[in-house]
Design goal:
By secondary structure, the chain is mostly beta strands. The chain is 0% helix and 37% strand.
């Protein structure tokens, strides 16, 4: 069975109630997917999934169960849920170019299967931006201003493989990336900017296998714990256009330019021609060539 939500639709779930008293939370409404969900908006006509009120945790969120197949969420805003997307779905389901904000718990909650998220804005959530005990990962995304962790990972029931590349993970209250779990968990951190998180930039508390390279880790209370930074990893001010205003575009003199494993820019947003603000410190790196093409998307805020 396929449920299609058309571009521009606003779907609002009853706040703080569940008439069926069923599902993962018997007191909250949820969008429960056991077949196929096609919620594909457009840049000009995004989809909104929210509640009839505007409080964190008013509804449960989108629940992708293990039987979910070939589902997609694109150009959507998911807000005021307990979990933005809670997935146990197998590979082949996609979430991209969407904003998940103001959840009471996690915006991304993957506890099985393999779900990947691309070109996301994950912000202002009440606990973790993303929690993974299943496989998958996040790419080309901004993860910021969450009340605790940016990304939290731990071991799943079976071997778990996670990849986090070309993300900007900034201004979260505690950890940028926290890696728990045993040696059955393999985590790749590459081409990310991890800055100004309240405690640690990258923290490993376990025997999980971590591959870390080509990141910029700067301005956290402590940069690394349990992970030795690669020689390709930078510790410099990334010189965003306006970090205080959550504008994480790279300025013209950013050391994150042309630093990735492929020679492109690192972080979620490639250089777009904006000069480094005069109020910013000057980096010793001054790339003169234009940045290679990268995905671009203006989020729904």
């Amino acid at each position: 069975m396929t449920l299609t939500i058309e571009p521009g639709a606003e779907v609002r779930f009853a706040a703080g109630s569940d008439q069926m008293s069923a599902g993962d939370a018997t007191t909250l409404s949820e969008l429960r997917v056991e077949g196929r969900l096609l919620a594909n908006g457009t840049a000009g006509a995004p989809i909104t999934l929210g509640s009839t009120a505007s409080g964190r945790g008013d509804w449960y969120g989108v629940r992708l169960l293990g039987s979910t197949t070939q589902s997609s969420i694109d150009y959507a805003t998911i807000q005021f849920a307990r979990y933005g997307v809670h997935s146990s779905a197998p590979a082949g389901n996609t979430v991209r170019r969407s904003t998940m904000r103001e959840s009471s718990s996690y915006a991304v909650y993957v506890d099985g299967g393999s779900t990947s998220f691309d070109q996301m804005v994950i912000r202002d959530n009440g606990n973790r931006g993303a929690y993974f005990s299943g496989s998958g990962g996040i790419t080309n995304s901004r993860i910021f201003d969450n009340a605790s962790y940016g990304i939290y990972t731990t071991s799943g029931v079976t071997s778990t493989t996670l990849t986090f590349t070309n993300n900007t993970i900034a201004d979260n209250s505690s950890y940028g990336v926290y890696i728990a779990g045993n040696s059955s968990l393999s985590v790749t951190l590459r081409d990310n900017i991890i800055v100004n998180n309240g405690t640690y930039g990258v923290y490993r508390s376990s025997s999980a296998v971590v591959s870390e390279s080509y990141n910029l880790v700067w301005g956290n209370a402590t940069a690394f714990s349990g992970v030795s930074p690669a020689t390709t990893t930078l510790s410099e001010n990334p010189l965003f256009v306006n970090q205080a205003g959550s504008d994480y575009r790279l300025g013209s003199r950013s050391p994150a330019r042309l630093h990735s494993s492929t020679g492109a820019d690192i972080g979620a947003l490639a250089f777009d021609g904006t000069a480094t603000p005069s109020s910013s410190a000057t980096s010793t790196s001054t790339p003169s060539s234009p940045s290679p093409a990268r995905p671009t998307w203006s989020p729904v805020t």
